[in-house]
Amino acid sequence: MAFTMHSHSGQFCPGHAKDQLEEVIKHAISVGYKTIGLTEHMPRTDLDDLYPEELDNPEQSLAELAPRHEAYLKEAKRLQAAYASQIHILIGFEGEWLRPSYGPFIQSLAAEPCIDYFMGSLHHVNAVPIDYDLSYYQKAVDSAGGTEEKLYERYYDQQFEMLQALKPRVVGHFDLCRLMSKDPARDVRQWTAVWEKIVRNLQFVAGYGGWLECNTSALRKAWRSLTHAGPLQRCEFLKMGGKFTMSDDSHGIAQVATNYKRGLEFLESLGVTDVWTLERTPHPGVTGTEKATLADKKVPVAEIKKSFD
Known about the structure:
By secondary structure, the protein is an alpha/beta fold. The protein has one domain (about 1-305): Metal-dependent hydrolases (TIM Barrel, Alpha-Beta Barrel), CATH 3.20.20. It has helices at about 20-30, 60-80, 100-110, 135-145, 150-165, 190-210, 215-220, 230-240, 260-270, 300-305; strands at about 1-5, 5-10, 35-40, 90-95, 115-120, 125, 130, 170, 210-215, 245, 250, 275-280, 295-300. The strands form 4 sheets. The protein has a 7-stranded parallel beta sheet with strand order 1-3-4-5-8-9-10. A two-stranded parallel ribbon has the order 2-11. It has a two-stranded antiparallel ribbon with strand order 6-7. It is globular and about 50 Å long.
């Protein structure tokens, strides 16, 4: 039973993704997905948090974000009903933890009755994007103290703030700080403080029952290893009894299920036999202010691999 818990569309993530959300879902059905988690990026609330492509008319760009989120939820509910006989659609969003003040806002978005879960993700250090381009990454390094080691320390401290405040069911790209590093495959145990923070964060996630995603976008981004919660962190998390989920982090049709077989083989090499997703009741839809009931669903890695043989 193939699935993803992390996906985007160009319709509701313009500038970063491609294609209409309905086309993404239809393609996911065609490749054999039985469950898809929709996780468009949440709206930001401050002009300082806009990306470069949003700065031509910043006030308008900011004003469009909240209505776009509402339009996304409306369309997601429509699609959930329209394709209920073909695919189990979970409705969520990807959080943006730029600073602690975003915590209550994320919680308010998650309280929406149709929302099943959200991704707890960091894309910034000290409110500076770390996955946009190298110039912004260097700004983030400078803001953290001038070295990648200091950037990693700050990243995991801010991630810990997010984890403590929100306890997200799914933790997105656990070590995104590696993406634009000069040495993304570095053994971070050489940085004692960084490794201690990683272990602290993993222990916290395992303790409250959160899931780390196996995010196969690491492979399409040509990282030297599957470093989203890379081998060292994954093995540590396994020892703690931690659980994993699967995601392609697709940003359009072309990236749906990209590198899934390689990602699954990677998990197997670490001794992971099962990954987890959610099943909602009722499906589709909820009424009034009542949320759906969610059940954890264990899926054997070997079963998903059969979908891509």
